[in-house]
Design brief:
The radius of gyration is 11 Å and the shape is globular. The protein is of the alpha+beta class. It has one domain. Strand 1 and strand 2 form a beta hairpin. The protein has a two-stranded antiparallel sheet. It has a two-stranded antiparallel ribbon with strand order 3-4. It has helices at about 50, 60-65, and strands at about 5-10, 15-20, 30, 40. The structure holds zinc ion (ZN). Zinc ion binds near residues 12, 15, 32, 34 and 35.
Length: about 70
Amino acid sequence: MIELRSTLTCPHCGYRKTETMPVDACQYFYECEGCGTLLKPTSGDCCVFCSYGDVACPPVQEAGHRGRSCCAH
Ligand SMILES: [Zn+2]
């Protein structure tokens, strides 16, 4: 079962928002609605959900674990 909703937490201001993840693409950029910072994945992560969300992105969930590259960029 793939979870499509992930709660992102901004590392700068702590603002949290639940977003629905795209299943066919990784989201590399995400603008925080709290402070306006453009978030990018930390090194080794494929998308903002893997870095800042409480649920990893769908391709990584399917792979079974984090740290696996789910998309080329
Ligand atoms: Zn923020």
